[in-house]
Structures are given as C-alpha cells and as structure tokens.
Amino acid sequence: MRISTLPNANVSFSTFLLTGFPGLEWAHHWISLPIFVGCALVGNATILHLVRTEPSLHQPMYYFLAILAVTALGLCMSTLPSVLGVLWFDARMVGLVPCVLQQHFLHSFSFMESVVLFAMALDCPVVIRFPPRYASVLTGSCVPLAEAVLSVRSAAITAAPSLHLRKFDYCRPGALSHAYCLHQDMVLLACSDTCFNRLYGLCIIMLAMGSDVLFILLSYTIIVHTVLAIASAGERLKALNTCVSHILAVLCFYVPVLGLSVVHRFGHHTSPLVHIFMGTVSVLFPPLMNPVL
Q1: Which of 67, 203, 219, 227 has CA 20 to 30 A from 212's CA?
Q2: Each residue of 159-206: pLDDT tens digit?
Q3: How deeply is 222 buried, as exposed, middle or buried, from its count of CB atoms within 10 A (0-12, 13-18, 19+)?
Q4: Which of 5-14, 124-133, 153-162, 168-177 has the highest mean pLDDT?
Q5: Inter-residue contact 51 to 66 (CB < 8 Å)
Q6: Are 38 and 288 contacting, i.e. CB atoms less than 8 angstroms apart?
Q7: Per residue, what are the HEC states of 6-44?
Q8: Is beta strand 15-17 parallel, antiparallel or unpaired with respect to 11-13?
Q9: CA dist., res. 141 & res. 21, Å (int)
Q10: 124-131 contacts, C-beta under 8 A, 24 or more apart
Q11: What pTM was estimated for this model as a whole?
Q12: 139 or 170, which is more confident?
C-alpha cells in the first residue's frame, strides 16, 4: 500500500483495499458469473434499442422505462469494473481519486433510480385518471427535460460529500466492506472531522429518497381511491394492472437498499459475507429485474 508521511508525522493512506468474498476466494471466478449476468447489460440495452426504434413505444410511459434502463446501466458500469477486477484478477488496490469518483457515480445513479421511480409513480395516476388526455398532459418533450433535471439533481446532491472525501486524511488502514467504494466505508477509515459527511448523508437520504418514497405512497393512495370509484370490476383490474410492474420495480429497488442500510447500522457483529452479499444484491438486483418486469 502506498503511503505518504505528513509533516506532523501522521500517516495518510492514499489507496484502499477492496474486499472480495472472504473464505470463498477459490470460487471467485464462479461467483463472477451470476454477478455479470445480474447486471443484465443486454436486457437493459435491448429496452433502449426497442424504445428508440419502435414508433409505437414513443410515449412518456416507455420513455420513463428507457430512463430507468439508462440508470440501471450506469449503476452497473460504476461498480462492475472493480468487482470483476477483484474476482478475476485479484486487483484489490484502488486509489483515492478513483474510489471517490466511483462512490460518487454509484450514489448518484442510486438517487437517480429512486427519483425516476417517483416520476413513474406520478405517471400512473395520469394514465388512470385522465386516459384521453394522457398524451397532452405528459408530452414527449416533457420527459427529456425531466430526465435532464433529475440527472443534475442526483449528481448535485452527492457532490459536496464527495469533495470532502477527497480532502480527508485516511490514517486508519483497513479494507473496504465491498468490492467497490461506498461513502460510508470511506468515512469510517478517515481520521479527519467527518461530522459534515455523516449528517449530510443522513439528511439527503431522508430528504431525497425519503421524500420519493412518501410521494410514491401518496401517488398510490390517489390511484387506489380512483380505482375504487370505477364501477366495472374489469376496468378496475385493468387499471391496477397498469401499475403492477412499477410496484414490483419499487420493491426490487427499495427492499435491498433498506436491507443494506439495516446491515450497515445494526449488523456490526454479523459475518462480513452478509454485508458483501447485501451490498452486491442492492447494486445488481434492480438492473437484473428491470428487463424482466
């Protein structure tokens, strides 16, 4: 590990050690196969190709699906190189700047996926309540504008803690919890004042993802109220079927993320394999399920 001695005789570590699957090093090549498949690069790329080339899919609902596919690809590509590097070539060392950039893109795409699911939750009530006016309420030009705004929002809210990570001194040697860099892992190894990053990270999760979940629940409250007001049982079932895929996508994203948060905060005495498994699932499971749903 490359180290540099500071004037005050403290030691600052400028590289980090990534973790594979402890005790399962002999099976790393086999473990890499489901991880590579789990990224579902072909499935999400196929969604993008179909939405781009099929005129009948040039509707806001399918544009949102395309944005979700782009987000899933970004989430995979921000982690897959380092994960496969560890599993295939035992390349465990990563520098400070690449580590900061990786965690920035990883968290940005996570927030992006959360807010896209929220935008799709707003799309469902419009489809159900105003089907004749759906195309005029959500025009094709609105979706690219919304995508640009959401992308800037996701990158901006993770910029400040990422910049702070770049300035920290890391005097605690040790391995990161996963085969990729996470903000909370890097904070644990820092010997600088990390109060801002800890508080800011908690606040943006509560305000960003928390508000997304709140508005998704509000949206489905409106949907249920609207569906119950429909007289025909067949029409009620048809209206609910419109939202089934979105509900499953929400569960596939938020359940693993919530599980990882619980393990990180309350599972200090659990096996490292539990942390690694939950981290891998939270990153790879949503991209895998998007094409299926």
Answers
A1: 227
A2: 999 999 998 988 877 788 889 999 988 998 888 889 999 899 888 888
A3: middle
A4: 153-162
A5: yes
A6: yes
A7: CCCCCEEECEEECCCCCCCHHHHHHHHHHHHHHCCHHHH
A8: unpaired
A9: 46
A10: 124/219, 124/220, 124/223, 124/242, 124/243, 124/246, 125/219, 125/222, 125/223, 125/226, 127/61, 127/242, 128/223, 128/226, 128/227, 128/239, 128/242, 128/243, 129/222, 129/226
A11: 0.86
A12: 170
Tokens at 49, concatenated: 């190709």
Compute the distance between CA of residue 69 and CA of residue 56 in angstroms, rounded to an integer. Answer: 18
**Residues 293, 289: Cα–Cα separation, whole Å:** 6
CA distances (Å), origin 16, targets 40, 175, 180, 191, 243: 28, 6, 10, 14, 43
**Amino acid (one-letter) located at 173:** P
- pLDDT above 70 (res 62): yes
Q: How far apart are CA 95 and CA 98, in angstroms?
A: 6
Token pair, residue 82, equals: 């380092």
| Residue whose tokens read 């770049």 | 166
Q: Which two tokens stand for residue 123?
A: 């799309």
